[in-house]
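re: that complex we talked abt at group meeting.

here r the seqs, copy pasted straight from the sheet so there may be weird spacing, ignore it
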Amino acid sequence: MRDYLLLETRRTLRDPGFVVGGVAVPVLMYLLFTNLGGDAGDWKTGAMVGMAAYGAVGSALNTGGGVAEDRAVGWLRQLRVTPMRPHQVVVGRALTASVTVLPAITAVLAAGGLVNGVRLDAWQWAALAVLLWLGSVPFTLLGLGNGYRLTGQTTGVANMVANLGLAVLGGLWFPLALFPEWLRAVSAYTPTNRFAQLGTSVATGHAPPGGAILVLTGWLLAFGAYAVLSYRRGAATD
Amino acid sequence: MTPTQGATPAVAFAGAAKAYGDVRAVDGVDLRIERGETVALLGRNGAGKSTTIALLLGLCPPDAGTVELFGGPPERAVHAGRVGAMLQEARAVPRVTVAELVGFVGGRYPAPMPVGQALELAGIAQLAGRRVDRLSGGQLQRVRFALALAGRPDLLVLDEPTAALDVEARHAFWRSMRAYAGRGSTVLFSTHYLEEAEAHADRILVVDRGRIVADGTGDELRRAAGGSRVSFDLAGRPTEDLTLLPGVRSLEVRGDRALLRTEDSDATVIALARLGAIRGLEVAPASLDDAFLALTTTAPVPEKESVR
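got the structure back, here u go
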């Protein structure tokens, strides 16, 4: 399992699309959004959490793209004729995602602290990183669900739509304050909004609200079920 | 290479069948491969070779019948690391080097060979540090051979292992395969090249339309298909009566030449002499090609057969 994790992590980090889309873009967008148009104040912290979350969601979904690719080239089939159990492959993939979301989270938090001068207590930084890390799990499952169900190309498109759509709707790019009332109501039920809320609550010195944990748990179960169903379907045909 | 009789066979199929929609890809196969045998699965494209291999590896369950490896379900043998396979449709795994990939796959098995040795056997030692997705088709095929070998499996399964190889690489491949088989491993490979089947297998299984239609050595298949072929110039002579001559099993007319497949060439030639039909007469042993054609259906398969 450790070897598989190493192999897949290495493969992910060698993917220029992952490095650019999953790490560089969130950092650049964060720096741009907070440094254009004068003093952004609190938004520097809010946007830091939002963009770290956006990067984490992108990286987590990217794992699904990798799965679709592995199915297409026959790598998953090759693994099935080695002593590895099918569930070890799936768990290994999910664990890979838990490693490959870290660069995005770390890079955006570092940009916030080092470039934008965001000041938080040590425990807040630590809690923020851990919550963003844990909160990315539902998105990994969504990505895996897409990867096992769809072809390589459609997985890419589905992941991108999910990523951009959920990011904007969840307020990762723009503050929710800019949204009309009804959209804010919708946003409160998105996994991305609640994911970011885990981070912003800590950054402002509060415990994460129960509502956020409730909504995220709901999405965790939904995406988990989706991943299991997709896996069963995908595994039957590969 | 001596097969071990009596012990649990390496491979045992009993009435195994698998259909995809209306197509019976594997249609009731009984088959037993002893440990240490090297067996070729010979058939045309679409004859059912790959589906047979998928059943054997436990990649799909049979619709009917049973498939066993070493006396248990295929999944168990695969999980125990007794099986190594080279799959036909596999493409390059992106963003990984040859040595990383072979080392990883070998590392899943209980007693793998060193990566260097696997690469050496597959003839790709010089490619160790190259990225798999930047190799040529032939190089990639040898990487897949190394993946199959790396775990030092008891049963090596190779689905059309030489399809993308040039002549030189093909020879090198068979040398390595024989070296591996010589250690007492069981080897099953599929091919549509008759010469390969005869040269490199102890036993040939001819597959046609999802069934095993012949099982034996090249010589046995030749005999089974009818011993020799007799040909002569027709010179305008009618051909209707030729199939009635003693020994003759089939007739083929190529241009002005008649080609008879016969079980008893002496009797056939004597009868032809009586008829005075001996112009340009030639007698030759049946080729394995002839045997193969005689054993498998030559009629073209209809594009679409409606059953409703």
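couple things i noticed - The interface with chain B takes residues 3-4, 7, 10-11, 14-15, 69-70, 72-75, 77-78, 80-85 of chain A (CB under 8 Å). Chain A has a mean pLDDT of 91.
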